[in-house]
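Appendix B, Record 12. Input sequence as logged:
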Amino acid sequence: MSSLIPTVCDKIESNFEVSVLLPFYRKYDEFRRALQTNAPYFQRNGIEVIILMDSPQQEDELVVLLKQYPFINWKVLINRQPHEWRNPVKVLNVGIRHASKKYILAMDPESEMHTDVILQLRYMAELYPHSYFLGSVLFVDSEGTVNESNMGLYHKLPYGSILAAREDILAIRGYDESYTTWGGDDNNIRSRLDLHGCTRMMAPQAILLHREKNNREQHKSRTEKYNRLSMEVRKKAFYPQEAICNDLDWGTDFSECIYDYANNAYGKEMCLAYLSGAASQFALLQEDAFDRKLRCLILIPTYNEKRHIPEVLQHLDKYCDGIILLDDESNDGTYELAASKKLLLKAQKQKTGLFTDLENRNMLLKIASFLQSEWIIFMDADERFDSRWPLQLQDPDLQLFDTICFYLVHLWDDVHKYRADIPESSPIGQQGIVHRWRMFRNKGHMQILSPKTLHFPSIPYRNDKLTLPVLILHLGMLQRSKRLEKYSRYLAADDEREKYHYFLAEDALLHDVAAITELPVYKQLLS
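Logged structural output:
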């Protein structure tokens, strides 16, 4: 995707906002094979994968398989009413009703992504609103290898997948549920999206592979089946009279959910399995941590923070429902000292000999994805909230936003003073009072994406932004010895020395923390 505009792709990849729908009828073996290829594409920020089982057969095998991919945001809905194969329109409509993302992508569970179909279609959606986007499918042999030189030998269908805004699909009431047999349903929904005013956009580079035995014979059979469709069926498929179809109860054919990443019945089991391989030691301090619905979860990475632990944990107890702590090979007893009434789980990383803050924060996000929490906040051990501005988690305004920004000052030489003349702009025009993005709505498994290991984004995504009057007091610069230590560590990772010269200043401009009396609220709705 090097030809795509990097800033647009960066925005998308931080939060795709895509629900992938997989209509599933006795396709376990084919799905398992395709998943080996598709898993890296599914396991990305803001993607949920909804498997729509139209039969309870293979239920147990499927759940076991999904547990092997713990960082894909799975949702599984199941129909327990026995029946033979049927047109999947009702099944797909169930998925549309249960999807939570801005865009819907429908594809077959046995299809493999030959190219990055999700990113390619989602990129087009970013540029062309009120449109829908069609990838292509290549029908290949079961063991066939596809490359540029032999791609022309296979049958290619220019309608292999469809991505559209969920609001547009809801407006036309999904797929036409009067279809019960094979053929015409995909053409029909495309034609009705046309009538709705959406623009049809083709994306031939977004290629799915559909593997099958006796590929040539299967293609011949499909062609014959299509040729046998009546003129009435074809007219309905290509020339529907109205954009809207179905009664108001469409998409309600079944609703039992047996797996949901947002309320993961297997969260404890999967988390402990993950930590068994990723941590040198860990402790689950509250057995019911995975059963509780938390309003706010604080994640705190530590490294040789004996002077701050457990005081910071007890301080944070007042601001959250739970805390997860990850220690990075501390040798001063930080891990052992960590204790508070809100500490749910603590873990210490496997020894690598390297401190990587980005890796630590992403590991915390992996652990957090197994718990049920509405909000997540990152805090460091050397930070405290100023009690004059309490975090109001019950504020109804929070429901409108996904990412929350706080204010921060660096305490300097005196716990009552902050450094004003730092080389960082102030969003409110007051020297030394800066922004820090720390709080975000839990959207399942997400990671902070950055090529940097220093000064990377502090949260995984930013959209629908709210800046609250909450002030963080940063103690990490308070003592000169700590500033010199930080200066040396930063230079080891970044050779732009001039950026950190202010760490060495002996004549810093200091202001009173008590003189900060007003912190404004800023709102920016993007979606």
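The radius of gyration is 26 Å.
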